[in-house]
Amino acid sequence: MRNTSGNRCALVVGGTGIAGRALCRELTEQGWQVASLSRSAPRLPQAGVRSVQADLTDAQSVRTALAGLEPTLVFLTVWSRRPTEEENIAVNSAMVRHALDATGRSARHVALLTGLKHYLGPFEAYGTGQTRDTPFHEDEPRLPIRNFYYAQEDELWRAAERFDFTWSVHRSHTIIGYAVGNAMNMATTLAVQAALCRAEGKPFVFPGNDVQWNGITDMTDARLLARQMIWAATTEGLPSQAYNTANGDVFRWRWMWPRIARLLHVEPEGYAERPRPLEDQMAGKEPAWRALAQRERLAEPDLARVATWWFADSDLSRPIECFTDLTRSRTAGFTDYAHTLTSFAALFDTLRKDRIIPK
After folding, report:
1. C-alpha closest to that of 355 among 282, 306, 284
2. Which ranges carry the NAD-dependent epimerase/dehydratase domain (predicted)?
């Protein structure tokens, strides 16, 4: 039966990631008791958040870790990248299944974070085959291709029928937010790119293609995403459905790039004839980052924990423009807005304050 108690306990699965950290912060500020589930203990603990460790690919590990915890809200913000989409499907659907098997009986609402690969296809076919027209709408049918986001949704729906909880799916675009060691962290990756360029006296080169340089796009502030997920989980009367999640403004990278460069104190260089991927630009930069980290007394000398070149390259080299329609959430009552350039600026200030990048 659906839990209707007044228990204000929330579980954030993947609480050390970009979206998870923002959710933990927002939930604690709203007076929830918050537990954060992750594979390992957080290197940056959050005040008021109980940390729980488990291997989400192991059902028994999850059951043991969550024994005695009865969350009424469950937020699923975790994923694991594997070499093929079939492996992505097997692993990521299992993680959702294991989490819900352990928490479904107490859950009143479960919110699942996915993304725009729902409309673009998986990484190995990212925007190269059939895609949906922009702006993307939530009611468009699934693409005729295997996709781990679809498998995660299927697990959510099966658990909702079994345990009788309401649910929401949140399809964010590239998330701007704070986390270290996160695999999908483009804003921090660009800040690290700029720090290395600045240290070496080189220009800040746009790595993507002409479509992304000239086309319309949008992004998602992690704080806005957290507010939308909590709104969907706590607003009475909402139907169980999916919501696109983006800041509400749109931009072109040819406009944004020089402004980011100004925030990061580097000289911008835009698209010129061909993509210049970060995996090529930044190859072999580990010693340079370690030296910079030592010289500037930065908190993280491991370049792999603060920059994910492949992810920024994949986002900035898609062959189609990419932005979403927000009508569904707005008409349902969620009207929050974030200015994307301001989101970048706020994150860069936090990264400097915490000594992730130089001042």
Report:
1. 306
2. 10-244
